[in-house]
Amino acid sequence: MEIFRKIYRKIIAKLTDFSPELTSKIYYFTKIKKRLNLKNPKTFNEKLMYLKLNEYEENELITKCADKYAVREYVTSCGCTEILNELYGVFDNAEDINFEKLPDKFVLKCNHGAGFNIICNDKSKLDIKQARKKLNKWLKTDYWKFVAELQYKNIDKKIICEKLLENSTTKQINDYKIYCFNGIPKFCMVCIGREEYKKPKYYFMDKNWNVLKINPDGISLDDKIVIDKPKCIDKMYDYAQKLSKPFKFVRVDLYECNEKIIFGELTFTPAGCIDANYTKQAQYKLGEMIEIKR
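User: That's the sequence. What structure does it adopt?
Assistant: Structure tokens below.
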């Protein structure tokens, strides 16, 4: 099975080199079961696809902010240095990492895509040789080719090592993903149970912290269940507004750790622009929030 997966990825990579638009259309049809309308995009997914294919590849600011390392400079330029996670090191290859100098707990990640993470809860149990092998493999991987996400194409690949986020009172660290349109934060998606469950729950909350019934988890939520509102949510919205100002759309991903706000990343193409979990009505309503000038 793995050999077929490798062959498939190679074919997709070559196809993306030839035509990112064609790859996107194939992905879209496979996931959404509809043809991708780029001539007159209406839905949230379609407009994100349009932006990805037409405005992201040559946009230096987008590339910088999609880069999990370079984005730190952007966050600082916006006057938000205090929300950056502690950085232990930046490396061009895995051999440069001196594990002896790292603390017992940390996170290693590559800066040029998604899913390139190694979470270390106990350094004494970490297979360092295997970790180096995995990191170097990721560095050789052109992530953008497999998903045709052009914001990652021109990133200078690196490995970064950051502090492992832990709450002092609970294992649970919720992340808050704030959806911003034209520099205005509109609503927040809360991810609950990432550490506890194989499949976490996602709830969309408006600014008054009411559940928005725009996805299956929100629709099926018992009205008696209360989603805890973080004390710092207003500050999160303030940071999101500062960070999202130059963009037609961006999702500002933040964490709350020990009552402190920690920056995660800026996401320009949630779910690769092929999220099938929104209701049909929500797809069109969110799509209306993105202004496209052709």
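The chain has ten helices and ten strands.
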